[in-house]
Amino acid sequence: xxxxxxxxxxxxxxxxxxxxxCIAGPVFAAAVxxxxxxxxxxxxDSKKISRKQRRELKTIIEKEAIxxxxxxxxxxxxxxxxxxNASFKAMHKAIDxxxxxxxxxxxxxxxxxxxxxxxxxxxxxGDGKYNSIAAAxxxxxxxxxxxxxxxxxxxxxxxxxxxxxxPTRDHRKAVMEHGPCIHHRRSFRLYPSWEQAKLF
Length: 200
Known about the structure:
Elements: E1 12-18, E2 27-33, H1 51-64, E3 67-73, H2 75-81, H3 83-97, E4 104-108, E5 119-123, H4 131-152, H5 160-163, H6 169-178
Parallel strand pairs: 1-4, 4-5
Antiparallel strand pairs: 1-2, 2-3
Helix pairs in contact: 1-4, 2-3
Catalytic activity: Endonucleolytic cleavage to 5'-phosphomonoester
Subcellular location: Cytoplasm
GO cellular component, one term: cytoplasm
């Protein structure tokens, strides 16, 4: 079982992102405030559970959370501000959209850009330690997967329905053969230059 909270008696929002290592699609982030007594036997880091379990948990989290929100930063802005800052900005947007004001933030990872006056703690592998961060990882992952699957139909060469925009061998090969599309991140250098991938 994961821990219900880090600080007793404090309204904590867990925050996590999905899609940071992708070469296509937005980076998504979620913020979740759970009841202090919330527990679920399969809740864990989204990478450690099955697609079916993530879908089940998504419904439960959205129903039982005190507040939750999801936000994204698109590839064009990722290229402008870099993926690390884009991940933080997506988290900021998600936090700002919460219907309940958190008193403290639990951030998955080891870095974060401060936001407003919120106090925060960075927790390495926090999505495998705290319920709220795990819940945020589930929402960020499922919403991003849905986005990539939706656009997979429009760009069938890239196999986004399976790779979700990550740089798999087949995805990279498809970029070389067909060129990148508007959803690819130009700042992620798979090749010496994107011109080699038929950008022009």
